[in-house]
Amino acid sequence: MSIENASLTTIREIRGQYRFVIPEYQRGFAWNEGQWGDLWRDALNAARRTHADHFSGSLMLRVTSNTDVQPEVVDGQQRLTSISLLLRALDEQGLAIEFKNNEPLQTYFDYFAAGNRNLAPRLGQYRSFYARNIQDAAQFFAGRAATLSKPERAQVAEVLLDRFKLFVLAMSPAFDVHVAFETINNRGKPLSVLEKLKNRLIYLCSLAPDRQAGEAAADQVHAAWKGIYGWLGSGEKLLGDDEFLRAHAMGWFRKEKKSEWLTNQLFEEEFSASSNDITPEEITSYVSNLERASAWWYFLNHPDQLPAEAAKALRSLDRTASTGARPLLLWALDRSALVDSELLSDPRARADWIEPFTALVREAERFSVLVLWGNDRMSNVGQSDFSRSAYSLGHPGVPVAPKLAAPPLDHRAAVQYAQAHMKSLVDNWHYDDPEGADPADSRFPWMGYFDPQKVKTVIADRLRRGDGFYKWTLGKLIVYEWENMLRGDRGLPEKMAWERFAWDESIEHIYPQTPMDGWNASISFDGRTSEPFRKAVVNSLGNLLLLSGSRNAAASNNLYVGSSEVSKDKRERYRGGSYSEWQVAEVCPARWTVAAIAARGIAMMRFAQRRWEFQLLSDDAPLPDWLPILFGDFGDRIRAGAASHDRAVDGRVLVPLVQRFETVRPR
Fold first, then answer.
1. How many other C-beta atoms are found inside a 10 Å radius of the C-beta of residue 176?
2. How far is CA 141 from the centre of its chain?
3. CA 210 to the chain's CA centroid
4. What digits encode the pLDDT tens for the residues 65-102?
5. How far is CA 123 from CA 84, 89, 157, in A?
6. What whole-number distance in Å separates Cα of residue 412 and Cα of residue 338?
7. Are the beta carbons of 641 and 631 closer than 8 angstroms?
8. Distance (Å, rounded) from C-alpha 169 to C-alpha 607?
9. Of 64, 416, 478, 582, which one has the fewest beta carbons inside 10 Å?
10. DSSP state of 437
11. Structure confidence at residue 258 (pLDDT)
C-alpha cells in the first residue's frame, strides 16, 4: 500500500507527534486576512459550543514509514502556519515547522510563531512578501486575542488544541500526489493556475518511458518552482502568479482569441493529462525559461533595481496604469539580457544592454498616453499587436504579422524592431488617408491607432460637458509632468508624489470655481455670460495648479492678490509651495488673468507635444491658434477679450507670457 494511513487527528496530537517539513519548492505563506478571519471565527464559534468537535480541513503528508516524525507537508502549509501563529497569540506553544532551505520564512516563523526573540535583529534582512505576511498574520491574531481576557484566551486555545481536528493523510513516497493535488478542495486559498501547472508537469514527467529522464525532469520542475516562488515573493508585495504566467504565455505560446485561453492552452493543448507526446526535455526547456522569466518579471515590477534610465522609463509607464504592454516588455527584457547571462545577478552591472528595452518602454508609455488617454480609446486597443510582438521576440525569426519580413535575429536589433513596431501603431495615423500618405515606417504598412484630431475632439467634448481638463487622466499627467519638468534633474526634492496625487486634494483652480468678490478686477464675466463659458475658463489646463500639500478648500477661493491681509493672498501661499506654484507666483506677480491661463496652458501643451512626440499645432503656429484647444467653443470669445474687460488675448499679450512660462525655473 502506498497510502500508509489516514486519520482524524486533533491539533494537540499532531503537535506532539510531528515536526513538519515544508518543501523548498512550495510557495510561501500566502493566506490573507480573509482566511485568518475564518480561522479566528471558527475558533470562537467552537468555544461557544459545548463539546462539539470542529473539522478544520485536511493535511496531506509524505512519510517514509509509519514512525516518521518529520513528514514532508504536501498540502496544508498555510493552515499549519496560521494555526501556529494563532496558538502563539493565545499564549500557547505552536507547531514545530521547518521551512527547508528557506531562511527568511524560517526566521520570521521562529520569531513570531515560536517566540524566539533573539532573532529580532535578523528580521530586517528578509523583507519578502511571504516573510512579512507571517508578521502581518501574527499581528492580526494578536489584535484579536487582545480583546479576550486571559481565561477566555486559555479556553479558545484548549478548544483549538483538542476539538479542532484535521484529516491527516499520510502517504509513502511511492504515491504520486501531484495530480490529486490539483483537485484538493478544502477551505483556504484556492490554487492558482501556476500551482496546478506544477503538478501537471510533474505528473507528465512520471509518464515518461525513460523513468530516469522523467525523474530528472521532475527535479527540474521542483527546482524551477522554488526559484519562481522566490522571485514572485521577493518584494514587499506578492506578485500575482497568474498575471506572470499569462505574460510569459504570450511569448511562449501564440495567443488566441478564446475564452479561458490560458488554462485551455496549458491544460488542454500543451500539457494535456492524456498526452503521451510531451518529452522530459520539452518540459525542462519550458520550466527553465519560465524560471528565468520570473526573475525578469520581478525586475520589471521593481524597476529601481534596473539601470537608471530604464527605471525612470518604467516609472513613467506605471503612471499611465496601462498593463497591456507588460507581456511584451517581459519578453523584450529577457531577449535584451541574452547578451550576458550574468545580468540576472545584477542588472545594473552594465547599462548598455538595456537601451533598446528602455526605448520600447518609452514607446509603450507614449501609446498609452496618446491612444488610450488622448484618443479616449478602450484599454484593450493594441492588445493583439502587443501579443504578436511578444511571440516574435520569444520565437526569433517569426514575423509580427503575416506577409512581413522576419525581424532581426540579433538580440539588440530584435528589441529595436519591436520598438519600431509599437511606434508605428501611433505614428501611422495618417496612413490610408485620402491624400495617400505613406506609413511613417515602411516596414509596417498599416493604419495606426492615434489621431491628433481626435485629441482636439475629446478636449472640446469635455469642455462642453463642463469638466474640461479637470479630472481628465491626460490632463492629470500633463499637470504632473509639468511639475517634474520644473523640478528638473538637479536633485531638488519631490514636492508631490504621483501616488499621493488626488484631484480633489492636490489640484487648485487658481481662478476659483466659486470666486469671492474682487476677482472681477482681473477676470470678468457679465450677467449674460453662460455657465459653460465660465467653466471653460475655470477648467482650462493653465488654470489647474498642482499643490505641494492637501488643498485648503477655504483658501482656494481667495484672491490672487489684494486681500486685506497679504498672508491670505494665493500668490503668497504659492511662493512656498510646489515648483508649479512657485513658477505661477514668479511669472505673475501682480494678477492672475485669462491671458495668464491661456499662456500657461499653451506652454504646458507645447511641453506635452515634445514630451510624447505628437502634434496638435506646430511650435511655430500663432499662439492664439491654441485658444480653441484650451477653451473649446469659447476660444474666439476668449481671444476677443470677453472675460478680460474687452482686452484682446492675442499674440502681443501671449508671446511674452508663454516665453516666461517656458523659461522661468526654480533656482
1. 16
2. 29
3. 43
4. 767 788 899 889 999 999 999 999 999 999 999 999 88
5. 19, 19, 27
6. 9
7. no
8. 66
9. 64
10. B
11. 78
Residues 379, 388: Cα–Cα separation, whole Å: 17
First to last CA, the chain: 81
Q: Is the dihedral of CA 121, 125, 127, 128 positive or negative?
A: negative
C-alpha cell at 98: 521547518
Q: How far is CA 152 from CA 42, 45, 91, 158, in A?
A: 15, 13, 11, 10
The Cα–Cα gap between 290 and 413 comes to 23
In sequence order, what are the residues at sequence separation of 6 or more whose Cβ sits closer than 8 angstroms to the Cβ of residue 383? 324
In the numeric block, which cell numbers belong to residue 172? 509513502
For residue 231 the three cell numbers come to: 522571485
Q: What is the mean pLDDT of residues 399-405?
A: 89
Instruction: List pLDDT tens digits, range 481-525.
Output: 999 999 998 889 999 999 999 999 999 999 999 888 889 899 988
What span, in angstroms and rounded, lies between the C-alpha atoms of 202 and 206?
6
Shortest CA distance to 416 belongs to which of 336, 311, 339?
336
Q: Tell me the one-letter amino acid at 82.
A: S
83 to 8, 16, 375, 469: CA distances (angstroms): 17, 14, 53, 53
Task: Name the grid cell of 382.
Answer: 493594441
Count CB neighbours of 433 within 10 A.
9
Tell me the residue type at 586.
E
String of DSSP letters for 16-72:
HH-EEEE-TTS------HHHHHHHHHHHHHHHHSSS--EEEEEEEEE-SSTT-SS-E
Chain mean pLDDT for the chain: 90
Where residue 439 falls (left for φ over 0; alpha for ψ -120 to 50; beta otherwise) is beta
CA 331 to chain centre: 17
Rounded to whole angstroms, what are the CA distances from 468 to 23, 475, 536, 639?
Answer: 57, 9, 6, 18
